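Hey, quick one: can you model this chain's 3D structure?
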Amino acid sequence: MSIPKKGTRKISVNELKFRWLIRKKATYTQSVYGIGKLHVAVELEENPKTSLLIHTDRNHPNDIETEIVNPIKPSDISNWIKQALELGWNPSKFGSPFRTKIVENKVELE
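Sure thing. Here's the predicted structure for all 110 residues.
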């Protein structure tokens, strides 16, 4: 399943071109319980096969307990993509989404 093109941003990592997306509208859990984190989806720009799902450690801006917003920058995305590739994510091979989480700015399998 590919991510919608509308609202995505482009980034190049290791000579591969990717699209990434952060859902702008908070889900109910991301806004009400005080535990909402930002999630990122990444896939190849052309012929996407397997997406990368990143559950970050960054608070969602709409979370009721978020006081300071720590934005996700393109450099974060680039770094996380490189780490996911090292963990075995193959974006040009069909398969289930590659689910990861960020712990102390390091990508770990979920």
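One thing worth noting: The first strand starts at residue 9 and ends at 13.
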